[in-house]
Design brief:
With about 250 residues, the chain is of the alpha+beta class. It has one domain. The chain has six helices and seven strands, in the order ββαβββββααααα. The strands form two sheets. The protein has a five-stranded mixed beta sheet with strand order 1-2-6-7-3. Helix 1 packs parallel to helix 3. About 45% of the residues are buried. About 25% of the residues have low confidence.
């Protein structure tokens, strides 16, 4: 697979002590009597709202065209990575059915759950990943394209959990495993030279991300718990350094 020409991924940042957590929130998928999910589950990513709306004529170094190209690259590389992993295990791989950008609150829903702004989600009902295009583009401009690759990598990990029928008892376990899987995807593809680390990436992501781990006092067993900044950084680093082995997919 060709190396995308501008994947400025901050790959080493997640093994640096100064890195703050990458923040996604997910709920576990309760099972019905037949063993399938009892309701659609959307997993979300939170961050600050973009400073400007998505505008095809926006000025600046990082353009809408570059943003869309990176979204496409992140999706295609994730699909290649997981297809290769499934092939090695003798399993059939089905890519996520759709990747849906939206711009209005409630424009896209997961079952009967409308998706809000400043959000990205994997939804098992319909098997799609949806994201607020304005928010994601704002994060792309403010943080860099590393955020887009993490965002897609984490949400794609939730889709893989669904395909493998992985259901943890607690939300935090599901989330930290997805962080580990995202780290493995980025680390393994960087080692395979499908992604390239460039000068300045470490500072780009470390300076742009805010700490979005759980608030102090958040019970680890709460339905919306997703891990402290330290826990999420460690989970991603484990996957990045050691591939899928520490992610416990068996």
């Amino acid at each position: 697979m060709p190396v995308p020409h501008r994947n400025n991924l901050a790959l080493a940042v997640l093994v640096a002590a100064a890195l703050v957590a990458l923040g996604c929130v997910a709920a576990p998928q309760p099972e019905d009597q037949a063993g399938g999910p009892a309701r659609p589950v959307a997993t979300t990513t939170r961050a600050a709202a973009p400073k400007e709306p998505l505008d095809p004529d926006v000025d600046g170094t990082d353009t809408v065209e570059e943003f869309r190209s990176d979204v496409d690259d992140a999706r295609s590389i994730a699909e290649k990575y997981w297809k290769d992993q499934f092939d090695k295990s003798g399993l059939d791989f089905e890519p996520v059915a759709q990747l849906i950008p939206y711009e209005r609150d409630g424009e896209v829903g997961c079952g009967d759950q409308p998706l809000g702004l400043n959000n990205a989600a994997y939804c098992s009902a319909g098997d799609f990943i949806a994201y607020d295009a304005n928010w994601a583009f704002g994060a792309f401009q403010d943080i860099g394209d590393a955020f887009i690759f993490y965002l897609l990598g984490h949400e794609y990990a939730h889709a893989i959990q669904r395909r493998l029928n992985i259901q943890k008892q607690f939300t935090i376990e599901q989330e930290l495993q997805a962080d580990c899987m995202a780290g493995a995807y980025i680390g393994d593809m960087e080692k395979a030279e499908s992604l390239r680390l460039e000068k300045g990436d470490l500072g780009e992501l470390a300076a742009g991300l805010d700490a979005v781990g759980d608030d102090p006092g958040q019970p680890w067993f709460a339905d919306n718990a997703h891990g402290t900044a330290k826990q999420r950084t460690r989970a991603f680093s484990n996957g990045y350094n050691d591939s899928l082995e520490p992610c416990d997919l068996t």
